[in-house]
Amino acid sequence: xxxxxxxxxxxxxxxxxxxxxxxxxxxxxxxxxxxxxxxxxxxxxxxxxxxxxxxxxxxxxxxxxxxxxxxxxxxxxxxxxxxxxxxxxxxxxxxxxxxxxxxxxxxxxxxxxxxxxxxxxxxxxxxxxxxxxxxxxxxxxxxxxxxxxxxxxxxxxxxxxxxxxx
Length: 166
Description:
Strand order of the largest sheet: 1-2-4-3
Order of helices and strands: HEHEEEHHH
Low-confidence stretches: 152-166
Radius of gyration: 21 Å
Distance between the termini: 63 Å
Helix content: 55-70%
Largest sheet: 4 strands, mixed
Number of strands: 4
């Protein structure tokens, strides 16, 4: 008696699913480790936020969610998977005219929990690596998220008012 084609197909399917789960798990662990390393590094260079930044943070509705770090480069980034926060550098103070707009942009990332969504997209694209279209969709998701948040910033800068939801 020979092997049935169904049995061979099942083995291939199990192998593909196992590879996908392994890839997803590895990507998930790497993302969590990278977030932890980022937080450790960031904690070493934390500085108190100057008054102008604290007022801008309050206007943006981010009170208690912004951390300042010492760095000459203008930087604002949203981090944290379950309780997103915003990191701003002292170099951003040189760009004080755009500070409100940058914080509005980051507020939208916080409000919509974009770091968590990005992790989920990375894990899913890793799990379903055998669907090349999914990788393309993941890249488009990331671009769309950034575009929407930039739209919030543009509406604020262009209209001189706080934007509503993107």
